[in-house]
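Researcher: Good morning. I'm working through a list of sequences from a screen, and I'd like to move beyond sequence-only analysis. For each chain I'm collecting a predicted structure so we can compare shapes side by side. This is the next one on the list. No need for commentary yet; just the structure.
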Amino acid sequence: MKKTELFCACWDFEKTDRFPLFEHGFWPETYTKWRAEGLPEDVAPPSFTGYKGKDLFEYFGIIKPGYITPYIFMVPPLEHEVLEDTADYYIARNGNGAVVKCSKTVQTLPQEIDYAITCEKDYHKYRDRLTIPALEQRIGANIWNDIEEYRNKDDYAAVCTHMHGFFAYPREILGVVNSLILFYDEPDFVRLLFKDRVELYKKVYAPILEKTKIDFAFIWEDMCFKNGPLVSPELFREFLTLAYKEIISFFKDFGVTRFVVDSDGDVLKLLPLWLESGVNAVLPFEVQSGMDVVKIGEDFPDLTIIGGINKYELFKTKADIDAELNRVLPAMAKRGGYIPTLDHWVPPEIPLENFEYYIEKIKNYRFD
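Model: Good morning. Structure tokens for this chain:
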């Protein structure tokens, strides 16, 4: 069985004798640190756009998430402008009109400062830019090149569409605080925003899905923090469920059967709603947020679980790594529907030697 076939089989709860090797991603600082620890010079930094030579994924034999990522924001974009530039950070107005502060020293989300869109009145000034299909600009030649490179590099990547979910999208154009307030202050605007987004996704993804088979659809949300979701289950059901159901139904019409949501933090209260909406997998299940995939697997037997291995245990000793894997793998191998990964991208605090050990342990793990 090929690596990608094993990945899909485990997702689908099919009987296998081992786990696939899969990781969500590597921080850029991790690659830099590992080069200093002896990573061979011919290993390239990880990339999510096509095949760029032997990278960390291929070096470790890990299936890469091969993202197909059309441009889904303003077309044409607003003019990018750097407002302040220092050795440690810069402040810029981006193509969506958002003013953000970006660190030059740490890989982290930008700090929100201001947004061009804060209400429905603002939205209508830019609505055309956010809703017109403009397929040449949104898809472009690079996407077709990426797909061809993924397919030509046999058993290299699980090919997936990548989209911002219905919380992640407004947070990008409105900011987190504005987005949350608008659920209460301008609910009709929120419904319009989601309706527009569903229609744009259909128009943009249709030509991609018509021409290539994808292994899964990836929905980025990041809508939870350590103590729970940023949006209550009640608000999710009222505003997001319909949008999820519509876009997932659209993808299913093209034969797509696997849908994963990516959200950090404590996702427990949203799991039933994602399942109800047609999502069948979630990642990365951060242990520091109380996400115990063994318990979650028992409570949600139909959910494909990706992640849940405590990255902090890989900072320590091989005995600690063994203990963490023994906590998770036996129970999840028996359950099925599980793809082991760290509970976030691979951070630079993990020594190369420890990561190599962790990968070998999963690679050689065999089910009873």
